[in-house]
Amino acid sequence: MAIDLNFSESEEMLRRGALDFLRRDAPQEVIQVLQGTDTGYTEELWRKAVGMGWLGIIIPEQYGGTGNPLTSAGVLFEALGTGPLPGPYFSSGILGSLLILEAGSEKQKKGILPDVAEGKKILTLAFTEPEYSWEPRGIQLRAEKSNDIFVLNGIKLFVMDAQAATHLIVAARTGKGTDPAKGITLFLVDRKSEGVSVRRLPGLLADSTFEVKLDSVKVPRSAVLGDIDEGWPALKQSIDKSIPVLCAYKVGGCQALFDMTLQYSRTRIQFGMPIGRFQRVQDMIIEMIDHLDAARWATYEALWKLDTRRPAAESIHLAKTISSEAYWEVCNLALRVFSGVGYSVKHPASFHLRASRRLYNYLGEPSFHRLKLGQLLTA
Amino acid sequence: MDFSPPEYTKEQEEFAKEVNAWLDENIPEGMTFPRDPLKVSREQFEKRRELARRLGKKGWLYPSYPREYGGGGLDAAHSAVIMREVTKRGIGLPPFHNAGAAYGVPVTLAFGTEEQKKRLLPLILRDGAVTWELFTEPEAGSDEANQQTTALRHTRDKDYFIVNGNKIFVGGIYPPPDLFLLLTRSDLEAPRHENLAMFLAPANLPGVEIVPLDLFVPGPFGGVSGQSTTGADGIKYQVFFKDVRIHESYLIGGERDGWKVANAALEVEHAVRPGRGEPMAFMGTMSRNLIAQRFLERCKNDPNIVKRLKENPQLVDSVVNVYIGAEKERLYSIRNAGGKGGVYGGTHLQLYSKMFALTLLHEITKVLGPYALTSDDQWGLDDSLFEVGQRGALCLAPMGTPEITKIVIARLLAIGR
Questions:
Q1: DSSP states along B330-368
Q2: Do B312 and A368 touch (CB under 8 A)?
Q3: Contacts of B139 in chain A (CB under 8 A)
Q4: Residue B327 CB contacts under 8 Å (≥ 6 apart), including other chains
Q5: Chain A, window 84-143: residues with a beta carbon less than 8 angstroms from a chain B beta carbon
Q6: B215 in helix, strand or coil?
Q7: Peptide linkage before B176 cis (omega within 30 of 0)
Q8: Which of A176, B116, B314, B375 is the most exposed, fewest CB within 10 Å of its CB?
């Protein structure tokens, strides 16, 4: 056994394919336009992504995917994060798929996952609400049983990719017990159902997050994923597994920011010399390494642990904490080096600014994961 | 010692009443003060201009500048009252709609001829002319002396300069302005720092083209005090000059004195000499950090946030960090107001405030979560103060990047060169 931090041949192909895609099909000008749209993708881009197997990357072959390990998904999402490519790739291809895999019945897996892999169904998780929390207590939206259907009422807030999704996986409260982790049920809700309304939240830093209102939305019993009242374990499991893939996307963002900042510091001339010669600029670039490399290796180690079925809880919290902070800080540092030119909404640093803020809290803000880490380290 | 904030004397109190009565009477009807400059309509902007004109007529737009040039001729105590009362209404410090005037007036006072002072200054001080500062260029950011925009004497009409080039990251909401404070290169051969010329000139000249820039920032310090201190609002333009004729009567100082004049403006801007530029003199003094204040109130009163703080004690650290950071900012302000800032006081506070704003919004986002990131009417807290504030905090370049500001401090400490 020796340390081997290289990508496999197929991972290298995935990476190159994704980077070529960004160069050819989603260069800067396209990403700027996509960031402004409510869905984050175009039909053409979506078709191409589906063609490359990205939406089924972790879906097992028997359900129409390619059944890759999470590490491969991480490699793909790191490449996509360099864009950063907007769109529901993670929401549907990773988190959505994991939710169906973890919670769904065999029939549901067979019925849903092939469509997800083919991009015909697009999934996103609707977890958080106005009383914002990633703890089970954050799920308060009621689903009342009435004969053979459930009726959902409430608001889901800061939902990713809700406009792009064909289906929302809504975590709702069906039980009334004292333990908040009990009594949660997962529902697959067609976004076009009567009573569902989706609204993108304004604010550049909100980027692409949505308010989803469910007003007496009726869903059949068959829309329940897994068991009634027992949704939490599968929900937590799916989120935990998906987190390092999301972290990889942020690593890609950090890497792109580092590369473009380094390049700029070599070519931008002020006072008759490249600004990279100035020690204060050097300090910022070196600080970026600290964040970037911590995020990268915490992320890939967590992915490796998950794929090799090692205990990964600490690593997942570590990766999410480090990479969220890293992406945030690397953006700040890059903007300080670019200064004026980076303030333009057309500059890629500002694309990353939006993504770094939006993803900072998603699937648990750093303080949430620090709390969990603290509990694990002192239990 | 006495740390209590200055209170009005009896006479000042009377004057404050007078100011308020006047403001009640003269603030244009329906004038609103949205947090996000992008939400200021053209109509609202015109109301602001109208108020500026009314203030100018009264002598209160620039209360302490000399009466003969259109200022109010008031002493510091009375000026302070006007500024404080106006600020209380959330309007911001006059002039709240342009930065060029803040530097254009003091440099004209220092370097202009008597004729220029009489002709140009009343336009700003009395009539409320909007003046854009046109210093920054694509190749002259931190390196301000590296001007590429040329102003060369016309070969035949020797009274005129012909200006060619472009300025970037300049101006403010709703062009065109009335005047430009324009830094140019007047000599292609002369050595650095001896090759520049400064103009305070009309903006509506043939050959000038103003193109908007699409930036994400709502303005420098918008994030710190919740109101701009320079009148800048983060809405910026690129200004192109193509064979623009400017008469020599708008040249401030000598034809090769531009760097000297610019330096005087920069000293005001860098708060090295508070007092020379009236608006800057008041900057930061005693003003509490609005964002920190609103956030700390929310930590006590917002049930949602209170619950989060109980659930995760780590977040309390962030709350304490915000408090400590804001208290330091307040204490530095008091230090400066009490005359203990030494050579570096104003500049140091400027640097601190910029860097603190970054930390502040980071800590706040930890506690408020995505609520700090949206400007939604329903879900954006405190009139979107935090989302707008964060975008503002990221804008570190105006008035010099932190790196340049450190150089300024080092020079003030006589270790710079």
A1: HHHHHHHHTT--TTTHHHHHHHHHHHHHHHHHHHHHHHH
A2: yes
A3: 269
A4: none
A5: 128, 130-133, 135
A6: strand
A7: yes
A8: A176
What is the per-residue pLDDT across B291-347, written as a single tens digit (0 to 9) for each? 999 999 999 999 999 999 999 999 999 999 999 999 999 999 889 888 899 999 989
R_g (Cα) of chain B, nearest Å: 22
Tell whether omega for the bond before A69 is within 30 degrees of 0, i.e. cis: no
Phi and psi for A57 in degrees, rounded to 5? -60, -35
pLDDT digits (tens, 9 = 90+) for A329-359: 999 999 999 998 998 889 999 999 999 999 9
Are B364 and B291 spatial neighbours (Cβ–Cβ below 8 Å)? Answer: yes
Say if residues A335 and A343 touch (Cβ distance below 8 Å): yes
| ipTM given for this complex | 0.94
Domains, chain A, with CATH or none: 9-121 (1.10.540.10), 124-231 (2.40.110.10), 233-378 (1.20.140.10)
Q: Do A339 and B396 touch (CB under 8 A)?
A: yes
Residues in chain B: 417
The Cα–Cα gap between A211 and B406 comes to: 44
Instruction: Determine phi and psi for B381, rounding to 5 degrees.
Output: -75, 150
Residue B276, pLDDT above cutoff 60: no
Rounded distance, CA A82 to CA B232, Å? 33
Write down how long chain A is: 379
Burial-class residue A9 by CB neighbours within 10 Å (0-12, 13-18, 19+). Answer: exposed
Asked if A203's CB is within 8 angstroms of B374's CB, the reply is yes
Task: Report the C-alpha dihedral over residues B85, B87, B91, B97, rounded to 10 degrees.
Answer: 110
Question: What does the alpha-carbon distance between residue B234 and residue B119 come to, in Å, rounded to a whole number?
Answer: 30
Q: Write the CA distances from B91 to A29, A109, B84, B85, B94, integer angstroms.
A: 38, 59, 10, 10, 8
The pLDDT of residue B281 is 36
Q: Which residue type does B71 have?
A: G
Cα–Cα nearest to B256, from B181, B151, B186: B186
Nearest residue in chain A measured CA to CA from B369: A361
- Encoding tokens for residue A156? 């889901």
pTM: 0.92
Three-state DSSP state, B248: helix
**Domains of chain B, CATH where assigned:** 10-125 (1.10.540.10), 131-256 (2.40.110.10), 284-412 (1.20.140.10)
* Whole-angstrom Cα Rg for chain A: 21
pLDDT tens-digit series, residues B158-189: 999 999 999 998 888 788 899 999 999 999 99
Name the residue of chain A whose CA is nearest to B407's CA: A280
* CA closest to B136 among chain A residues: A340
Q: Do A370 and B314 touch (CB under 8 A)?
A: yes
User: Nearest chain A Cα to B405, which residue?
Assistant: A280
Choose among A217, A212, A249: nearest CA to A76: A249
Q: Please report residues of B whose CB lies closer than 8 A to that of A180.
A: none
CB contact under 8 A, B308 and A371: no
Pull the structure tokens for residue B406.
């450190």
Q: Tens digits of per-residue pLDDT, A219-247?
A: 999 999 999 999 999 999 999 999 999 99
What tokens does A226 get?
């897994």
Check: CB of residue A174 under 8 Å from CB of residue A185: yes
